[in-house]
Amino acid sequence: MVQVTLVLLMPVMAVEVPGVVVHGAAHGRLARMRNLYVVTHPEADHHVRKLVGGWYDSALTDRGIAQAQRIAADLGERIPRRETALLFSSDLRRTRQTADPIGQRLGLLVHQDRDLREQTYGIADGTPAGSTPYLPPPPHGDRMHHWDGNAGSEMRFQLAGRAYTALHRMLAAGAQDTVAVTHGGTATYLVAAWIGLPLEAAGYVKFQISPGSITHLREDDVFHDRQVVALNDTAHL
After folding, report:
1. How far is Cα 42 from Cα 62, in angstroms, rounded to an integer?
2. Beta strands 214-219 and 110-112, pairing class
3. What is the arrangement of strands in the sheet containing 214-219, beginning at the earlier edge strand?
4. What is the per-residue DSSP string for 92-105?
5. Cβ atoms 6, 165 nearer than 8 A
6. What's the burial of 108, exposed, middle or buried (CB within 10 Å: 0-12/13-18/19+)?
7. Average pLDDT over every residue of 168-185
C-alpha cells in the first residue's frame, strides 16, 4: 500500500529536484501564473490490437507518431517562455515517443518519471482485453483499496498516490510552464490532485480523457486558485 500525505492547497516554494534545473525568473521562487499541461499519449499499438495497456510497453502507431507531432506543434504555440518550462514524461515507450517531439519543439530535456505510468493490471498487462477475470470496484465502500483480482495489479489508491506524488514533485520544481506526458488513467488523478481533492476521497473521480489530449491547468498569480482551463482538448488532432 502506498501512503501519501500531501497538502496541495498552499503555495509550494521552488526546490531543487535532482536532474531538473529551472532557468530564468522561475528559479528560486514560486512561478507566477503557472500552467500545467497534462498530455496523454496518442494512438498506440495496444489500442489497435485491443490489448490491456497498463505497464505493457507498447509503441505508438504511425498514426500516433503523426499525432504526437501535432501535440508538439500545439504546445509550441501555447508555451512562449521556454526558458522557464519543464517537461516530464512517464518512462514507458509510448509516452517517451510522445514527449520526444515536444522536447524537440520546445528545446527541453525530457525528465522521465516512473510515477507518471499508467495503472498496472499485473498479469493482464498486454493480454487481449477481457481475457482475464476482472472484479470491478464496488458501488459503495472503500473503492480506493479495491483489488481487481489480477496478480500484481495496483489498487486505485496506489495509482492515485503515484500521481499525487508526481504532481507535488513537478510543481516543487517551480517552473512557470510544466508539461506532463502520461496516460489516461493517471491523468484523472493529476487533475484531482491539482484541484486539492484529498487522496482518500478520490474513489469516485473519473474524467473522460482521450488519447492524444491536452488538459490545461492554471494557477493564477493573485489568489493562487487552481483552474481547469481546458479538459481533454483534442482539437489539435
Report:
1. 10
2. unpaired
3. 110-112, 85-89, 177-182, 34-40, 214-219, 226-233
4. SHHHHHHHHHHHHH
5. yes
6. buried
7. 97
Q: DSSP state, 115?
A: G
Long-range CB contacts for residues 15-24, cutoff 8 Å, separation at least 24: 15/172, 15/173, 15/174, 17/169, 17/172, 17/173, 19/111, 20/86, 20/111, 20/173, 22/84, 22/86, 22/173, 22/174, 22/175, 23/83, 23/84, 24/81, 24/83, 24/84
Q: Which residue type does 219 have? A: E
Residues in CB range of 119: below 8 A, 6 or more apart? 54, 153, 154, 156, 158, 159, 185, 186
Cell of residue 174, nine digits: 517551480
Q: What is the pLDDT of residues 81-102, one digit of tens each?
A: 788 899 999 999 999 999 999 9
Length of the chain as a residue count: 237
Residues 6+ apart with CB under 8 A from 48: 61
Q: 126-139: per-residue pLDDT in tens?
A: 999 999 999 999 99
